[in-house]
Amino acid sequence: MSSWAIVALVAIVIWGIVETVRARAGIVTDEDGNQKIAAREEPGNKLELEAARRELADLKERVKVLERIATDSNSGDAREQARIAAEIEALRALPAMKEDRSK
Known about the structure:
Largest sheet: 2 strands, antiparallel
Structural class: mainly alpha
Distance between the termini: 118 Å
Shape: rod-shaped
Number of helices: 3
Strand order of the largest sheet: 1-2
């Protein structure tokens, strides 16, 4: 076998190894020659994706609740309730102040 034949054979083997590694990694080439990683359809990925979607939905719901809490404290009713609670606390403090003055 000539040296050029050996070089050609080694090149073909190396090319085959590279293509095998690309296939295992999921790298595909489109008709324009662009390479990209193909999406894999593994059961674990679907379960993880569904769990992430559920968690995102739960977090969105929590944010809605927190937004409602933050904005409700600025409503007229909430301010009125806070004013009444402050008046009640002030009235509770009056007997303690009277006792301090009498001493």
